[in-house]
Design goal:
- This protein has two domains: 160 residues, NADH Oxidase (3-Layer(aba) Sandwich), CATH 3.40.109; 106 residues, no CATH class.
- It is built from twelve helices and ten strands.
- The strands form four sheets. The protein has a four-stranded antiparallel β-sheet with strand order 1-2-7-4, with helices on both faces. The chain has a two-stranded parallel sheet with strand order 3-10. Strands 5-6 form a two-stranded antiparallel sheet.
- α1 runs antiparallel to α4.
- It is globular.
- The termini are far apart.
- This is Epoxyqueuosine reductase.
- Belongs to the QueG family.
- Monomer.
Length: 308
C-alpha cells in the first residue's frame, strides 16, 4: 500500500467529516461494467418516461474518465437530510429532501471547499464536483465505495443510517486507497414493493421511473394521467413512501445542517392552506427550496389533482 495514498485518503476523509458529510468512500475511476447492460435495458424499456436527458451521454454515465480526463478516483460522499420535525398529518406532503434550501447549492459549496482543501494540502490535483446534475451514476459509485448497497427500491441503503441522504462525488486525477462494496441486507423483505401505491417497483431492484409519484409530481410537465387518481397518497411534491417503510430507516437520525431546516410555515400548513396557496406564499415558503423546480403552477396542478 502506497504510504502517500493512505495519508491523502485519511486527510480527505477527515476533512469530509469536518465539512459535515456523514460518510465518505472512494473507488477507482473505471468503466462500470455491471451497470452498462442494466442501464441500456432500463432505457430500452422506456422506464425513464419523459426524462429524455437520461438517454444522453450514455458512455459518460458509465465511464468517469470520459467526464474528467485522467481521472483515477471517485470520492463518494453522503449528506444527511432527515428532518427533526415533519409536516402535520392533515397536510399534503412534500418529500423530506425538499424541506430546506436546495441541496444542490448546499452540497456544491461543501464540495468546492473539499476540492480546495485537496489542492492546498496535496498539491496540483484536477477534478470536478458532481451533485446529481451531470451524467454520473451516483448510487453505483457510492455502492462501489462501500457506503451502502442498492436496495429493492433502487435507493442506496446503509445499515447505520438508512437512506435519507444525498449522494455527491468528486472525480479526481489522484490515486487513493479504495474501499470495497458491502453486502446486500434487504433479505426477503418486500416492504417497499408492497407499499408503493403506483406499483413503480416492477420487480425487486427495478423501478419504473415513469410510474413513480416523484416522476409525476416533479418531472412530468403534461397533464397528470387520470388512471393515477387517488393513488398519490397526498404527495404533492416527490414521494418518500418506499423510504418511510424501509426497516433500515429506523436508524435515521436528524441532520445537523441548518440550511436544511424548513420554513416554519411549511410544517404548520394544513390541506386547506395548501389549497388556498398564493404565488406570494409559494415564493416565501420555498424561497431557496428545490420545490421551486415545479413552479407555482406545477404545485397547484398537483394539489388540484389530489383534492378533486
Amino acid at each position: 500500500m502506497n504510504q502517500n495514498n493512505s495519508r491523502n485518503t485519511a486527510w480527505i476523509k477527515a476533512e469530509a467529516e469536518r465539512l459535515g458529510f456523514m460518510s465518505c468512500g472512494i473507488s477507482k475511476a473505471a468503466f462500470l461494467e455491471e451497470e452498462a447492460p442494466r442501464l441500456e435495458r432500463w432505457l430500452k424499456e422506456g422506464r425513464h418516461g419523459e426524462m429524455r436527458y437520461m438517454e444522453n451521454y450514455f458512455d459518460k454515465r458509465l465511464d468517469p474518465t470520459k467526464l474528467v480526463e485522467g481521472s483515477k478516483s471517485v470520492i463518494s460522499l453522503l449528506l444527511n437530510y432527515f428532518p427533526e420535525e415533519k409536516q402535520r398529518d392533515d397536510s399534503y406532503k412534500i418529500s423530506k429532501y425538499a424541506y430546506g434550501t436546495d441541496y444542490h447549492f448546499v452540497i456544491k459549496d461543501k464540495l468546492k471547499r473539499l476540492m480546495q482543501f485537496i489542492q492546498e494540502e496535496i498539491g496540483e490535483v484536477d477534478g470536478r464536483a458532481f451533485v446529481d446534475s451531470a451524467p454520473v451514476l451516483d448510487k453505483a459509485w457510492a455502492a462501489k465505495s462501500g457506503l451502502g448497497w442498492i436496495g429493492k427500491n433502487s435507493n442506496l441503503l446503509s445499515k447505520k443510517t438508512g437512506s435519507f441522504f444525498f449522494i455527491a462525488e468528486l472525480i479526481v486525477d489522484l490515486d487513493l486507497d479504495y474501499d470495497t462494496p458491502v453486502t446486500d441486507h434487504c433479505g426477503s423483505c418486500t416492504a417497499c414493493i408492497d407499499a408503493c401505491p403506483t406499483q413503480a417497483i416492477v420487480e425487486p431492484y427495478k423501478v419504473d421511473g415513469s410510474k413513480c409519484i416523484s416522476y409525476f409530481t416533479i418531472e412530468l410537465k403534461e397533464e397528470l394521467p387520470q388512471e393515477m387518481k387517488g393513488k398519490f397518497d397526498d404527495w404533492m411534491f416527490g414521494c418518500d413512501i418506499c423510504q418511510d417503510v424501509c426497516p433500515w430507516n429506523r436508524f435515521s437520525k436528524p441532520h445537523n445542517e441548518p440550511l436544511f431546516d424548513p420554513n416554519p410555515d411549511l410544517l404548520s400548513m394544513t390541506k386547506q392552506d395548501w389549497e388556498e396557496i398564493t404565488e406570494d406564499v409559494f415564493r416565501k415558503v420555498f424561497k431557496k427550496s428545490a420545490v421551486k423546480r415545479t413552479k407555482y403552477s406545477g404545485l397547484t396542478r398537483n394539489i388540484d389533482f389530489l383534492k378533486s
